[in-house]
Each structure stands twice: as C-alpha cells, then as structure tokens.
C-alpha cells in the first residue's frame, strides 16, 4: 500500500546486435530520485527454470535503458526479464515479464569492407561480423552470405543489388565514374538479415585495351556429366595454356583465395583450345570456378574471365537408348537411361522421366503422333493395328531442373498380321472333321448292329449235330420266320407190330446217338436238351 506512488515500467524491449544486449523501457511517472533495477532468469536444460537473479549492469540505473551483455552466456536458452522502479526504499510492482531467446532476437552487425578500383572494376574485400573476436554469437563465418547495393553517386542514381563473395570483383561499370556501395551480411539458413555497412564510395578507372594474348569466349559444355572447356585464341604467335580451377566453397571464406587455384591435370602447357574437366568435376554437389592462363614465348601471361560451373545445372542430359519388342497385343519399349550404368548417381538427382512418341510409319503424312510419359525404363503400347510399321523415339525429362534431352534414335518395328481369320478357318475345319467322325461312327455302329441282327436271324451260330440234322431239321427253324403248313399224309398200318418195333429201334438209336453226343460235349447246351426232349415227346406220341 506504501508503493502506490511509483508506477511500474512499461514497454519492455531488448535490442541486440551480435552478442551486445540492451534492455529498454518506458516510465510514465515522475522520474525525480527514481532509479530502476532489473532481474532475470533463464531455462536450463537440467534444472529447468532458474531462480530470479539481479541482472548485471541493470541495478539502480537512472536511465530507461541498460547494457546487460555480460549476463548473457547461453544464446539458445529462453530468458525472462523484468524491471521495477525504486525511490528511497520504495519499490514499484514488477513490470510484465519479457521473454526472449538471445540468438533469435539478435541482429547481425554490419560487415567491414575494403574497396580497390583497378582496370575498370572494383575489387571488394568483406570482413565478417565479429571479426577478430574470441567469443561470437555467430558460430561459423562460412554461413554468411553478402549482398551489396551499388549506385552511381549522382542525383538520378539507379540502385543495383547483387550477391558477392568475401573477396570479389564488381564489373560492368562505367569508367571514370564514382560509385557508392554498402554491404549486408545474411544467414539464409536462419532467415536472418544483418545491418548494412556504412556507405563507401570509389571512382573507377579506364579499362586497359584487351590483350590479344588472353583466351576469350571461355565456356563449359557438358553432356552426361562429361565436362569440356572450350575457348578462342586471338593471338597469332605461339601460345600455350594452363587451365586452372578453384573449388567454390573457398570463395565463401574470408581468406584470400587467389593463391588456392590449381591446375587441371592433363591441361598444363597445352596448345589446344579445349580441355577435359572430367577428372576435376567429379561431384554433383557444390560448384567450381574455371579460368585459362595464356602464356607467350616471352614469359608473358594473361588470365581469362572466370567461368562458374554448377555440375547439375551446367550439365545437359544426353539422349536415351531404346530397344523394341512386339507380341500379338502390345509393343514393348525398353529404355537405356542416358549415360549408361555409370550415371546412376547423377540421374537420381534429376529424377528422370521419359516421353515416348510413337506413330504409324505410312505414306499418310496426317498420321497422328501419340505421346506417352512414364517414370520406369520399360513401357508398353497397346491397341496396335496388325501388319503395320510403327516407329518410336524417346526423350528424357527432368522437371526438377527443367531439362530435357534430345530424342533418341528413331526405331521402327512391324506388327504381326491378323491371326483371327486363320484361327476361324482352322476352328471350322476341326469342327467339321469332328462332326464327320461322329456321324461316321454312329453310321458304322448302326450298320454293325443291323448286320448282327441279320446274321442272327438267317445264319445262327448254333447248328444241330450232323446225325440228327435231317431228322429234326424242322425243329431248328427260326422262331421269327413263319412256318409253312406241312402236308398231311394218310397212312394205313399194315403191320402194327413191325412198325412199332421199327419205331422202338429208331428211338433207341436216337437215344444212343443223343447220349454219345452229350458225352462228347461237342453240342451240349440248354437249347439242345430242351429241343431233344420235345423231339422225344413228339416221337412217342407218333408211335402211340
């Protein structure tokens, strides 16, 4: 209740550049005999939140700001700050708590720059922020990138912005003209932009007349990661060349890279105007700088302009190879990727796909060219016309790098003829043949059955013995044939005894013959027995 006359500080803010931290606030009450004190705490990965402590550099200050840089040693931990007003033992309530992570709120300080005007260009040397300091907010200088803004020192100046390395050259400038520039350091990975350096101005000189000894039109051509350097020679006398390269990351360092150029193996003291760079450019990541040193017979030399080589961007994709195969229903296309089996690593970076063009090769120029895109190296095309010549060519595409290869060599193949009609003819013939065989089989079977019936009726297989064939021939006639009516004989008994004896003798002979035939087994069957019994009964009746 005794502190009502003192108000709490408001609008707590922290301004940080590199590892320099300043706490600022506003105070709306009377500042007579009023001082301010601050406390802080931070989160620790082991003890979590620490206790409130007095903030060094911010105790009993009379201004509305204080420098507490010495208190910040953990740049990635969260810190809490608060401020209160004090007067003769009275204290105000604490202000609201200000939370911060030092690394995230800190700004990058301006870099240092040195300029040199020579031969129509401006050489720039940039010193990184916190250069020469032992303890740094920004851990590695290699993470810095630099932007320069340059303009003519005139009333209607146009500003030009570009990226530069710590040691670089700004060209394409007007001679005898004063240019001003400022440089800013950035850390793209953290989306941090620093403060611009103070403005520096310098006047350009006139560029020397082009030396005919220097190599011109220096360019790099690459297909399937095979890099070749080409240049032009304007010097009429004997000239030899050294091709030199520099790994790109060396330019990112603040050190002087001019002494770090190396000669390309196989391209030393050559007289040709080309060089194979493949032994040097072996990686797909990073980039390289190439230049040509020309040397005359009088030990005079001249360096060409530098050429930047970013392998995946500079390289061009070569045409793929194709092989065609065809069957009854589809055309199969086997694609050989550009560069062969050795290029598998860089092909993965390009994420290749393939565009297939195919068409009917006929005299009709209006035949439609059809397009099909695939990711695999094997494709197929269906709905083909029989007995037709189809032609195919393939192009490799990289949508990631917006690149496309030339088309492959055109390959053609003819589709087989229509096999449906021969199949119909064969099927019809086989069906007719089967039908004829079935009808013939049924006809033969019917004739065979009729033959058996006729044979059975007219030519029975069972015949009576010869000794009784005439006696009982009439008993073996077929039951299926009508019997003719036998004439009735009128007989008179002349001598009954003789006739009876004769009949008995004949009957005995018959029985004896029958017994002999049964014993021999030549004509034994049930039909004979039944027939014999019937004959006996008939004869006995006749004798009676």
Automatic annotation (TrEMBL):
Residues 508-544 are annotated as: Disordered. One of its GO terms (molecular function) is type I interferon receptor activity. Residues 534-544 have a biased composition (Basic and acidic residues). It comes from the Eukaryota. InterPro entries: FN3_dom, FN3_sf, Ig-like_fold, Interferon/interleukin_rcp_dom, Type-II_Cytokine-TF_Rcpt. This is INAR1 protein. The chain crosses the membrane at residues 420-448.
């Amino acid at each position: 209740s005794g502190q009502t006359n003192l108000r709490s500080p408001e609008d707590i803010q922290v301004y940080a550049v590199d590892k320099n931290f300043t706490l600022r606030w506003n105070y709306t009450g009377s500042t007579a005999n009023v001082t301010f004190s601050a406390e802080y705490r931070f989160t620790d990965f082991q003890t979590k939140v620490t206790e409130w402590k007095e903030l060094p550099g911010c105790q009993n200050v009379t201004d509305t700001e204080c420098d507490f840089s010495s208190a910040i040693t953990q740049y990635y931990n969260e810190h809490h700050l608060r401020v209160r007003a004090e007067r003769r033992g009275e204290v105000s309530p604490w202000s609201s708590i200000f939370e911060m992570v030092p690394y995230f709120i800190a700004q990058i300080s301006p870099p240092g720059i040195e300029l040199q005007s020579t031969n129509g260009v401006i050489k720039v040397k940039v010193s990184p922020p916190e250069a020469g300091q032992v303890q740094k907010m920004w851990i590695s200088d290699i993470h810095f990138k630099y932007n320069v803004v340059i303009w003519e020192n005139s009333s209607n100046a146009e500003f030009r912005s570009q990226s530069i390395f710590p040691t670089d050259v700004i060209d394409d400038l007007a001679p005898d003209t004063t240019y001003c520039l400022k440089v800013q350091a950035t850390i793209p990975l953290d989306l941090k932009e620093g403060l611009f350096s103070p403005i520096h101005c310098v006047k350009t000189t006139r560029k020397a007349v082009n030396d005919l000894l220097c190599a011109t039109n220096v360019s790099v051509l690459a297909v399937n990661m095979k890099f070749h350097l080409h240049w032009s020679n304007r010097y009429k006398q004997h000239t030899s060349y050294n091709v030199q390269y520099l790994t790109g990351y060396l330019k990112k360092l603040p050190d002087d890279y001019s002494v770090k150029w190396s000669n390309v193996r196989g391209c030393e003291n050559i007289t040709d105007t080309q060089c194979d760079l493949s032994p040097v450019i072996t990686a797909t990541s990073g980039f390289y700088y190439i230049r040509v040193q020309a040397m005359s017979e009088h030990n005079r030399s001249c360096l060409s302009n530098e050429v930047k080589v970013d392998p995946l961007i500079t390289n061009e994709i070569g045409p793929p190879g194709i092989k065609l195969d065809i069957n009854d229903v589809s055309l199969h296309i086997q694609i050989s990727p550009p560069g062969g089996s050795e290029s598998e690593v860089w092909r993965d970076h390009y994420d290749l796909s393939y565009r297939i063009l195919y068409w009917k090769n006929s005299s009709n120029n209006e035949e439609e060219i059809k397009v099909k895109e695939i990711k695999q190296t094997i494709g197929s095309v269906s709905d083909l016309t029989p007995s037709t010549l189809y032609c195919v060519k393939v192009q490799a595409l990289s949508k990631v790098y917006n690149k496309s290869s030339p088309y492959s060599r055109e390959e053609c193949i003819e589709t087989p003829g229509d096999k449906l009609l021969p199949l119909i003819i064969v099927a019809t013939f086989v069906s007719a043949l089967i039908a004829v065989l079935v009808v013939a089989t049924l006809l033969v079977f019917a004739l065979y059955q009729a033959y058996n019936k006729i044979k059975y009726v007219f030519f029975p297989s069972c015949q009576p013995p010869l000794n009784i064939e005439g006696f009982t021939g009439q008993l073996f006639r077929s039951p299926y044939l009508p019997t003719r009516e036998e004439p009735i004989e009128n007989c008179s008994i002349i001598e009954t005894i003789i006739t009876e004896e004769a009949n008995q003798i004949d009957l005995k002979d018959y029985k004896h013959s029958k017994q002999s035939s049964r014993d021999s087994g030549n004509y034994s069957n049930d039909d004979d027995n039944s027939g014999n019994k019937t004959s006996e009964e008939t004869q006995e009746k006749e004798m009676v």
